[in-house]
Every structure is written in C-alpha cells, then in structure tokens.
Amino acid sequence: MAAGEPDVLATAVVVHRIGGGNPENLRLKAKEETLTPPGISVLLGGTPAEAAEQMRHAFPDPRKFRQLHNRAQIVGSATVEEIRQAGFEIVPDPSPRFPNHARLIHRDGVAGFSEAARQALSEVFHNTDTPGGGL
After folding, report:
1. Measured by CB atoms within 10 angstroms of the end CB, which terminus of the chain is less buried, N or C?
2. How many angstroms from the chain centroid is the CA of residue 10?
3. How big is the chain by its Cα radius of gyration, in Å?
4. Contact residues for 99 (Cβ-Cβ < 8 A; gap 6+)
C-alpha cells in the first residue's frame, strides 16, 4: 500500500520516532526497503510520552514485545519542517492501530538513507526519556 501525499502535513506537525533519533534507529530495515515508497515508521502529533504510550497500548504484552517496550523508553521528536530541511519527507500512512502513523522517506528512496544522510537527519531529532514500559 502506498503512503499519502507529503504536502498535506503542516510544517509545525511534530513527528516521533520510537527508539530515538539516533542514526542507527533511522536505518531502513529489510522490510522497510520494500515499501512504496521506502521509509521508516513514525507517529504524528502529541508528546513523546503519548507516542510511547500509544505504542505500548497497541502492543501490551511486555514479554512478547520486550524489544519494542524497551525501545519505547526513548522517543526522538522533530517537526515536519526540520525533517524537510534535513532532506527527508513525511507522508501520512495511517493504519488500524495507528491512525496517526506516517512514514519518513527520502526522494532518492533506499539510497537516500545513506549513513551521512541519516547522521544529518539525526541532528534534527531531540530525544526524550519516556520511562514506564521497559523491562
């Protein structure tokens, strides 16, 4: 399923990446490389704590989803404008569990997620500790 159009999002919308905004957490996974367009999952709006809680609520079993619950202790946040200035884009990609789900993409597709590009992108993210779901 293709994601929506990027121009529908206001520049001031806050974007959250569960696990933080470090370059390694901004790397495409194999499955994400096959998406149209390729990109990583993010949540739109609210606070970092709300994004973490939304993730924990959608996947409530902390034993089954241990890694996810641990990652939800840190949330990286940036605005759509900051992400665009770093050369990336945000496209709405709602799902049944996450109506505020979106995808962070690059116009060059997979090639746009180079180490240098991810390093520049990570500099616009601000990490917040969101304790409450780790094990």
Report:
1. N
2. 17
3. 14
4. none
Question: How far apart, in whole angstroms, are the C-alpha atoms of residue 27 and residue 110?
Answer: 10
Query: Which residue spans within 13-132 are E strands per DSSP?
Result: 14-18, 39-44, 74-79, 88-92, 101-106, 126-129
Cα–Cα distance measured from residue 120 to residue 107, given in angstroms and rounded to the nearest whole number:
15
pLDDT in tens, 8-41: 789 999 999 999 999 999 999 999 999 999 999 9
Spatial distance between the Cα atoms of 82 and 23, rounded to a whole number of angstroms: 16
8 Å CB contact between 29 and 128: no
Nearest to 24 by CA among 61, 69, 59, 74: 74
Q: What are the extents of the domains in the chain?
A: 6-129
| Interval 102-124 mean pLDDT | 97
Half-sphere exposure of 46 (CA within 13 A, CB side): 18
